[in-house]
User: What shape does this take?
Amino acid sequence: MNVVTTRAPRRRSTHVARPASIVDVALLNGALDGVAASEKNPEARRKQVLEVLREYWKQGRAEIAHRLETGTSGGPQSTHETTFLVDNLVQAIYRFATTHAYPLTNPTTGELFCIVATGGYGRGEMAPESDVDLLFLLPYKRTSSIEQVVEFILYLLWDLGPKVGHAVRTVEECLKQARKDLTISTALLEARYIAGHQPLFTELRKRYDKEIMQGGAANFIRDKLLERDERHQRFGDSRYVLEPNIKEAKGGLRDLHTLFWIAKFTYRADNGAALVEKGVFTPEESQRFEKAADFLWTVRCQLHALTGRAEDRLTFDVQKTIADRLHYTDHAGTQGVERFMKHYFLIAKDVGDLTRVLCAHLESETKRAPRLSLLRRSAAQSEIDGFANEGGRLSVRNDRHFKDEPRDMIRLFWIMHRDRLDIHPTALRLISRDLKNIGNKVRNDPEANRWFVDILTSEQNPMPTLRAMNEAGVLGRFIPDFGRVVAQMQYDMYHCYTVDEHTLIAVSNVHDIEKGSVKDELPLATKLFEHIREDKPSRRALYAAMFLHDIAKGRGGDHSILGARVARKICPRWGFTPEETETVAWLVRWHLAMSDAALKRDLEDPKTIADMATLVRSPQRLRLLLILTACDIRAVGPGRWNAWKATLLRQMFNQTNDYLTGNLSQETTDRRVASVQAEAAELLLAEKGDSPWTNEQIEKFKALGYPGYWLSFPARTLAQQAGLIRKAERSGERLAVDVEVHQRRGVSTVTVYTQDHAGLFNRLAGAIAASGASIVDARIFTFTNGMALDVFTIQDVQGEAPDGPQILSRLPEIIEKTLEGRLRIDTELAKRRQAMRSKSRLFATEPRVLIDNTASKNFTVIEVNGRDRIGLLYELTRALTRLNIQIGTAKIGTWGTNVVDVFYVRDVFGMKIAHEGKLNQVRSALEEVLADPVSETA
Assistant: This one.
């Protein structure tokens, strides 16, 4: 569909301001001529030429960098300035080579050549560290004189510093290679004359246009879009990863380049303004094109300038600096860096929109068969429920369709989802134009809401359709609260996606569980969904709660509380009953409760389970919360869901479910202790070997532990611990250490049996940290014989079970040396800090110490929040030990760069810490540790 406009926007200027301050060409050539006149020795002359060039290169780059840093030049201007600098240096070197180094008085046609810029350099867009791609264009074949000049030019450029890519070809060779290689064809499309015999370049341009471009658009477009799709797959096929590659990832500069190449190849258009004249873009779309290019080039130039290399990954360690340079400030509960990254993701979305527009125009002009859809299509009908069927893709009959029927923007996606069709880019373009027509009338329309809920709670995966609605901007207009979290990032190293992308992945996780496709990874959630499917209101509530669980993030308050309010406002609009609405709001309000309890509280403490049971009140809500929690964690990013978290959540669910069904009474607890003791005894008696267990030995072992010990482990583990204890007592050893790898759970366990004494846990925590492992859980038991059995659950830095000799084989020795005072933990940890670099210093984390005397019946619970660092647990426990605080249980959690460590503690008399003065002492000591900059050498 052609769009007629009376005025096209102005083309972006490539003018370079104050060019002489970047490089004064006359002075540069004069300096090089002076070297030629004063120095006749070729080698000495070349060295002096290189010194002159280096000085001009250094001064020019410094001026460009200064302009960029101070904001005198934006990204696009900076790319033109760098191109200007390189052009003049290449021209000066060519002039010197052909005038002074290897002059030819009367060169033949075969001795003439020219230098052509290709790639980004040819396009005139160079970031500070971009490659210099040169084509040395020959008339026929290479001659010795040409080879001398080419080598002279290349060696000077290589010695000068920039990374230079080059090719030496005749016109015929260029065209032959272009026919076979898409990359070469694209490079020639951007070719630009630099120096030398210009008629050669003119011949190349004419022949390329006639032999490659004419009649070849369809193949070029097809190959370029296939190349783009393959590149997207390599870089994760998502615009919304939090450390994006701004050049190669979806929505980045390379996608804009693809648009540029297709436009130039097909329409001979060099920019968005030219595409307006051709009727491809509207003026508004052209402005979006230029705006996207300006922003992405600005970011890329800043990135190169900051890192000093051709870096295209926008990593956490540069995001904040670039945000500051571009004057993004903190605002309304959102950090400046988060606002900067949101702008980036919205620009990336714009790039996708413009791609669809261009593809729609190409199809409307060439009448080609569609090739972009990844979904099943049906071309049997010419019309589907009032929408046009263009080759199996939904479109509209006229461009007023969505103006006249704005709610059809929702119905279009409903039909897309129902029939598994794709939407034609022309329809998406019209949606983009008419989005403003989705107002309160559409939002409150019962049919429009029914269509949306049908999509969200469909038997088939709703994520592709929801993502398409989000890409088109429909989701954010129809549900403005969702629009507030579109492209919203969280500046930390735990979350891997923007809030909207995380939400859609979480919804997809619910569908995967329902269909049983992840039953090996999530067996409990898959089993529980059988109960959910039988209860349709619960199923609807679960999908709705998953969609809404993070909808209030970034508002400056508790997003769970604020999100519940949003749920109570939206669900009635969706046609939910009051009971369904209350379930959704409750799930949103408490969607973090189960993970908090499982990962931060002692699951063997009866009050932990009682509190969870009081919160959920019913087995069905418990099932819903378990599934919601698993889906939420799994959607945070790769590796965030692991076997250890699954184990804790399963234990949390099972014990809470037992409580709700009356299976956790004191009498039941006594029976459970007796049962596990009997099972462990049976395993011990069944052991084969030279020294079988006797009933007397088993009774002695049973007398060692208090009830909490017996309920903390399965019978098999208790039997293993019994063997460790008996072996230590028979040999008279004061220390026994056992290490076991649990690959399925993603952890290893370290069991230490030794004499109990003050500070034992602190020393053991330091020893494990010195070994390179991380503690994720710790259980501390004092036996009736005065000995201690401490069990640590550990992981490696990748969050997996340590199973290599670098950790496991060293642990017993390190523990022994530590307890005997032969190893200085502070020294070992300092070595590890020097050997490791951490990004944690980039993220501001407000240290907090929360003390709760109501969470446990017998212990004071201390929760410590702060920035992670090597040896932090060791330092925290040392502070507690110095205050004569006894640690009963520890739950250690790491969330990206943040830690949440929870300690169940008692005073020296074995009581809760009740005295306010003592509590203040504890709080102050731990806050001092959290503020300690000891780790910042990392």
Q: What stands out?
A: The two ends are 59 Å apart (CA to CA).
